[in-house]
Amino acid sequence: MDLFSKVSRTAGKHSLLEEEIRKLPVPVSSVFLGKDGKIRPADFRQTDMTLVCKGHDRISQVFPKTIAKGGSIVLEAVASEKAATVSGKRVAVLFSGGPAAGGHNVLAGLAAVLGKQNTLMGIRRGPGGLVKGDLFEIDAQSVNSLINLGGFDFLGTDRTKIKTAEQFEKVKKTVLDNKIDGLVIVGGDDSNTNAAFIAEYLAKENIDCSVIGIPKTIDGDMAAGRYLPISFGFDTATKIYSEMVGNLTQDAASAVKYYHLVKLMGRTASKITLEVALQTKPAITLISEEIAEKNMSLGQVVDYIARIITLRRLKGINHGVILVPEGLVEFIPEMARLIAELNKVLSEYEKDISDLPSVENKREFLLPHLTAPSAQLLASLPPDLQEMLILDRDDHGNVKVSQIETEKLLIEKIRYRLSEMKRHTENFFGKGEGKIEADPVQIEDFKKVVLSTQSHFMGYEGRSSKPTRFDAAFTFQLGLAAGSLVLSAKTGYMAAITDFHKGGRVLALPLTGLVTAEMRKGKEEFVIEKSLVDLSSPSFKLFVQNRDKWANEDCFSSPGAIQYWGPTSKQVPLIVALDQDYPDFACFDLGEDKQIAPQ
């Protein structure tokens, strides 16, 4: 075969890599293996662990049926011969929210555990497809073609929130019309909140359908401590970002003139940023949760960065990488107040503001309706950011915080602060609190250097990659667990895996134990609480112990590309290994390696 033909044959997910990783075996926990070594469903027993969230009494009023049935007790998977005899069940699965690597191995796990005696149905385009009743049967050939590949493209996904009585009625119709015995929802905190409400609704309607959630989000904020250290997709995304950031640290040291400001996905939690920092050791890393804890203003954040850049310059280092979490602006208290005030005023005066002809007119209208500090802050921001805050709203009329180009805002502010330091050296250099010690020659050298910057946003690149060995194994086990829960007639649980380093412990977490009541826009809402960076965690403490050295010297490292073979192929995320007290970070062991293509 000539090269032209060979290249043509790689289309449709048949690249050399894709062909090989389909063949890779995946570890399978012993609880899913029969005496003959073949995959079979597990059963679940009660443990002595309970999962109770804040405001449990209020949650009990909202989910009475679910809590009455399962309480707050965590279940654990155990090997079973009984579950393997269940047949004739129809199980539907959907993807919800943003993609995450490994989703297709969830389908493979479900197919493997359900076997030929049960039917796996796919729901197209997420919760929206569930409402519309857009289902189809997933066959073995389709599953075989997807094993160990990334993306959510086989089913598609969306972000529909099922809240209205009409939507729930349509879900009921879909379940009854298609004779669905089990519904598996793969998603993050919002999606698993959906799962909790659907489970309660179907129970109230006396419909015998198990509803099971699976934890997915690259942000890592769908976690539950020792019960669930991380969600799937995080490991793959952070390894991709770490490779790219590692390349930038090397480039910065090679070109010796650029500061690369990199905004990393993760609107609420800074876990991605913390993991990438531990992997690559950049000059500066901002952690949103720490900034909120210290009540730092935008000016103080800028001062912190400018000071490190200046100290590096005094040592002759005029380059580096700065990591910025996507949701940073929401954690800076003064910015959060400004955004909250803008949301309120823009809602109250929507018609008046929409009739004004220009952004400047709108700004002038808004300023008197803001508090003095917020008005001053808005006026100090770059014009394009002011325009985004005033004009660019989401479906609920709120600022699209995730689209704010935080890295460019910081660049402009840092550039101005360094210019100010050059013009007024007496205020910034010398002896005394907060001043930088430097001799006249160093100060003159500092004045000569121009800040050269490059900005980057790393987000979508990490969501649909081929999964790491860890995520491929993690997701397959989650599929096995979810399918086993359905066959065991459990409902209102989220499949979870913990103890990644010693065979994997398969758990079922009561979704109601993760849900909490929050006040949003003056209304009580029930949501699964996001897991943020814990400032007392070992991973954050290690970062704090080392960041000054990384700032003062070029200590960068590059972990390189994702490995499917070799010494780093079984590496777990550093924050998981550190916070769960694992003995090593290249240590995941989830059971016996098995070829997972269904027969």
Q: Could you outline the blueprint of secondary structure elements for this entry?
A:
Elements: H1 3-9, H2 16-21, E1 26-28, E2 42-50, H3 56-62, H4 64-70, E3 73-79, E4 90-96, H5 103-114, E5 119-123, H6 126-132, E6 135-137, H7 140-146, E7 157-158, H8 165-177, E8 182-187, H9 189-204, E9 210-215, H10 234-255, E10 258-264, H11 271-280, E11 284-285, H12 288-293, H13 298-314, E12 320-325, H14 328-331, H15 333-348, H16 350-354, H17 359-366, H18 372-380, H19 383-391, H20 406-423, H21 425-428, H22 440-448, E13 452-458, H23 469-487, E14 493-498, E15 505-510, E16 515-520, E17 523-528, H24 538-552, H25 574-579, E18 592-594
Helix pairs in contact: 5-7, 5-23, 10-11, 11-24, 13-20, 15-18
Describe the structure concisely.
The chain has 599 residues and is an alpha/beta fold. Helix content is 43%, strand content 16%.
What can be said about the biggest beta sheet?
10 strands, mixed
What is the number of helical segments per DSSP (H or I, 4+ residues)?
25
Q: Approximately how much beta-strand content do the residues carry?
A: 15-25%
- Report mean pLDDT, rounded to a whole number: 92
The helix-and-strand class reads alpha/beta
CATH-defined fold name of the largest domain: Rossmann fold
Number of domains: 2
Q: Unreliable stretches, pLDDT < 50, 5 or more residues?
A: none
N-to-C CA distance = 31 Å
Query: What's the CATH architecture name of the largest domain?
Result: 3-Layer(aba) Sandwich
Radius of gyration, rounded? 26 Å
Helical content band: 40-55%
Instruction: Give the CA-based shape.
Output: globular
CATH class term of the largest domain: Alpha Beta
Count the beta strands: 18
